[in-house]
C-alpha cells in the first residue's frame, strides 16, 4: 500500500506561502506529467486550491521522495518550504484523502467546493494518464466516501462556504449590508456564491468585472447587477463600498497606488476588500492606507471558528465513517496482495490436472460422455481439496496483513510460492524459454 501524500494547507502555511505554491489551472496537466517523472512514482495527482497544494503518489516499491518535485517545480528553497510541509504514507495518506474529499479538512468544515475541485483534478489526471490503476481506485473510493458523509451526516448543512463566510464578515464590518454597493472581481464559482449571499443580506447594487466580459454579463444578469469592463476596473471600483475579489491572477491586481486613487475619489469614505484569491489579488501594502481595510482568506478563519464548533458533533460522526472506510479499503488492498498468488496456484494445479489427464487418456481408450464427466469431476475434486488449505491460509494472511502482521503474511505467501514452484512457473510464462 505504497501511497505517499505531501503538501501544505491553511493550517500549516500562511497565505504568503500558499500563494507561492498555487498552480494555475493551465499548468496543472504539466505538473502532473512532471510528477510522474519523479523516481519511484508510478501514478500521481496534484491538488491545488486556495487552501492547499498536495501531491498524492503511488509507488510499486518504496515510498518516493516528493520534496524535490516541490522545490524544483516552484523554485523555492527547501529551507523555506520544509517547516510548512506535512507528509502521510499508507493508511494515513488514504485517511487524509478521504477527509479532504469529505470536507473535514477544509477551512469551512462541510463546504461543498472541495469535492468538485478534487474531481476536477482527477479528470485532469485521467486525461494526462497520471492515474490508471490503484490510485484511480483510491480516488473513486474517496468520492464514494464523501457522498456517504454528506448523505449520512449533517456536516454539509446550511451551505456554508468561504464565500458565505466572506459575506458574513462584511456584514459584521458594516453592521448591515442594506444599500451597500458591492464589486465582484472575477465571475467564477466563488463570486457566484458571494452574490447569492449578498443579495440575501440586502446588498445594494452588485457590480461584476471579469477578464472574459461575457461571463461577467451572465453573472450580473443572474443577480440583476451591472457588468463592468475589466479594463475599466480602476476607474469604476471606487463606486463600491465592498470589493470581493477572487481571480486567478498570479500577481496582485489591486496595489497601494490604486487604493490611494480610490480614497481620493471616495473623499476618504472607507472601503473594504475581502480577498478570497490565492495568490492574493490585493497587495499587502494596501492595508497600510487609512480608510482601506483588507481581509484575506486567512483572516476569515476567526469567523469560521464559530461554524466549526457548531458542527463538531456531526464532524465526529463523519470522522467515524472515514475511519470505517479506511479500514475497508485497507482490507480490500491487502486481499488484492494475495490474489496473484491464489490465481497462480489455481493455474498451476489446473495445468497439472490437465497434463495428467492427457497422459493417461491414451491408455484409457475412448470414453463415453458420462465417463468424461466422471473423470473431470474426480480430478477437479482432488485439486479443490488440495487447494483448500493453502487458499484458506492465504486469505487469512490478507487479514493478518491488515491487522499489522505484514511480515508473517509475506512469509506465508513466499512459502506457498516456493512450495508449489510458482515463481519458476511465472518465469516460464514470462520468457517462454525454460
Can you put this structure into words, describing what you see?
Helix 6 (113-127) packs antiparallel against helix 7, helix 8 (162-174) packs across helix 9 (189-200) and helix 15 (369-402) runs antiparallel to helix 16 (406-419). Strand 8, helix 12 and strand 9 form a beta-alpha-beta unit. The relative contact order is 0.09. The chain folds into 3 domains: 3-159, 2-Layer Sandwich (Beta Polymerase, domain 2), CATH 3.30.460.30; 162-308, NAD(P)-binding Rossmann-like Domain (Rossmann fold), CATH 3.40.50.720; 332-431, no CATH class. The protein has helices at residues 15-21, 28-36, 67-74, 78-81, 91-101, 113-127, 134-152, 162-174, 189-200, 213-222, 233-236, 256-265, 301-310, 312-364, 369-402, 406-419, 422-431, and strands at residues 3-9, 43-48, 52-58, 86-89, 182-185, 206-210, 226-229, 242-245, 271-275, 292-296. The chain has 17 helices and 10 strands. The strands form 2 sheets. It has a 6-stranded parallel beta sheet with strand order 7-6-5-8-9-10, sandwiched between helices. Strands 2-3-1-4 form a 4-stranded antiparallel beta sheet. With 434 residues, the chain is of the alpha/beta class. It is 56% helix and 12% strand. Mean pLDDT is 86; it is low at 424-434. The two termini are 33 Å apart.
Amino acid at each position: 500500500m505504497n501511497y505517499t501524500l505531501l503538501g501544505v494547507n491553511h493550517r500549516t502555511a500562511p497565505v504568503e506561502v500558499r500563494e507561492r505554491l498555487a498552480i494555475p489551472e493551465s499548468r496543472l496537466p504539466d505538473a502532473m506529467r512532471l510528477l510522474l517523472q519523479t523516481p519511484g512514482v508510478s501514478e500521481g495527482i496534484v491538488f491545488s486550491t486556495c487552501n492547499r497544494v498536495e501531491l498524492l503518489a503511488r509507488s510499486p516499491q518504496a515510498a518516493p521522495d516528493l520534496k524535490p518535485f516541490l522545490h524544483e517545480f516552484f523554485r523555492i528553497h527547501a529551507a523555506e518550504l520544509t517547516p510548512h510541509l506535512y507528509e502521510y504514507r499508507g493508511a494515513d495518506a488514504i485517511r487524509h484523502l478521504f477527509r479532504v474529499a469529505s470536507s473535514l479538512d477544509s477551512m469551512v468544515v462541510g463546504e461543498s467546493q472541495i469535492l468538485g475541485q478534487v474531481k476536477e483534478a482527477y479528470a485532469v489526471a485521467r486525461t494526462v494518464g497520471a492515474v490508471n490503476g490503484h490510485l484511480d481506485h483510491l480516488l473513486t473510493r474517496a468520492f464514494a466516501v464523501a457522498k456517504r458523509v454528506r448523505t449520512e451526516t449533517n456536516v454539509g448543512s446550511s451551505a456554508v462556504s468561504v464565500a458565505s463566510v466572506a459575506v458574513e464578515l462584511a456584514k459584521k464590518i458594516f453592521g448591515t449590508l442594506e444599500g451597500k454597493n458591492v464589486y465582484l472581481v472575477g465571475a467564477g464559482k466563488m463570486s457566484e456564491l458571494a452574490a447569492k449571499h449578498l443579495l440575501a443580506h440586502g446588498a445594494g447594487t452588485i457590480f461584476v468585472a471579469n477578464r472574459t466580459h461575457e461571463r461577467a454579463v451572465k453573472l450580473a444578469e443572474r443577480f440583476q447587477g451591472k457588468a463592468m469592463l475589466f479594463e475599466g476596473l480602476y476607474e469604476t471600483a471606487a463606486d463600491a463600498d465592498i470589493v470581493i475579489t477572487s481571480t486567478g491572477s498570479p500577481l496582485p491586481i489591486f496595489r497601494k497606488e490604486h487604493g490611494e486613487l480610490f480614497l481620493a475619489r471616495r473623499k476618504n469614505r472607507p472601503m473594504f476588500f475581502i480577498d478570497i484569491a490565492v495568490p492574493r489579488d490585493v497587495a499587502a501594502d494596501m492595508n497600510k492606507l487609512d480608510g482601506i481595510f483588507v481581509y484575506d482568506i486567512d483572516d476569515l478563519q476567526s469567523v469560521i471558528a464559530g461554524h466549526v464548533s457548531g458542527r463538531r458533533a456531526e464532524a465526529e460522526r463523519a470522522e467515524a465513517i472515514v475511519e470505517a472506510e479506511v479500514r475497508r479499503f485497507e482490507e480490500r488492498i491487502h486481499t488484492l496482495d494475495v490474489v496473484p498468488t491464489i490465481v497462480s496456484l489455481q493455474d498451476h494445479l489446473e495445468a497439472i490436472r490437465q497434463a495428467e489427464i492427457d497422459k493417461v487418456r491414451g491408455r484409457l481408450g475412448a470414453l463415453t460422455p458420462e465417463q468424461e464427466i466422471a473423470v473431470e469431476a474426480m480430478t477437479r475434486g482432488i485439486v479443490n481439496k488440495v487447494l483448500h488449505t493453502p487458499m484458506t491460509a492465504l486469505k487469512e494472511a490478507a487479514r493478518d496483513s491488515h491487522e499489522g502482521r505484514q511480515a508473517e503474511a509475506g512469509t506465508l505467501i513466499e512459502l506457498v510460492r516456493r512450495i508449489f514452484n510458482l515463481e519458476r512457473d511465472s518465469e516460464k510464462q514470462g520468457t517462454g524459454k525454460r
